[in-house]
Request: fold
Amino acid sequence: MPTYHPVAAFCDDPDLLDGARIAYLESPNSVMMQTMDLAKVAGHAKRHGTLTVFDNSWATPIFQRPIESGIDIVLHSASKYISGHSDTVAGVVAARAELIGRIRDLTLPLLGGKLAPFEAWLLIRGLRTLDARMRAHQSTANTFVDRLASLSMVTHVHTPTPGTIPGLQGRSGLLSIEFDDRVDIPRFANALRLFRLGVSWGGFESLMLPARVGLGQAGRENSMRRFGVPPNLVRISLGLEDVEDLWADFESALQKSAA
Reply:
């Protein structure tokens, strides 16, 4: 079984990677939105002879380019922002030619590697609008972050600010919100109308997922304290609907949840 460590540990513990062949990374991660200095992590891994594999689905190449920071292999869940329309199941691997060749030699004979033509076309369609969509997601997220700061029932908003770590140039529409005890999370979820319950993200539609539900599906609900996940945390994926409509839905549901 793999061992999980807090993101900061990869830089703070000089012995953490001793003997490790692969470090599987994600920054920001998709629950608490914690970040790491990719260049520092990549340098630390190289000193230990450890290959770095990085999930860049949150930021996309529009807002973060890990290979430029020294990461070896970058992965994207193309079903999310790259597709952008919640109608494709696909993944993307980016790396230098030598590593891509090794991946092809090792996996294609066993797993196959051909995306159907129509799904490939859907990804091309998504890439054509990726920059515009990411900036629209960012604009809506910025509005929510500003307004959430004024709500007394919100104790913390988990989303990295662009520029707080080297190489992070923007903010996607995925963020987490921590509420105080006045908010009944099931009642809040049931009161939403534009936000639907969903475990994925990165599409045109807005979604909400209580952290307890997400970690429970992963078999880790009893480990919430270990992973530092508060019980009253929800994750929202802000889609491409009108920002004022989304805010009105969110605010109305929040008021009903505390009634």
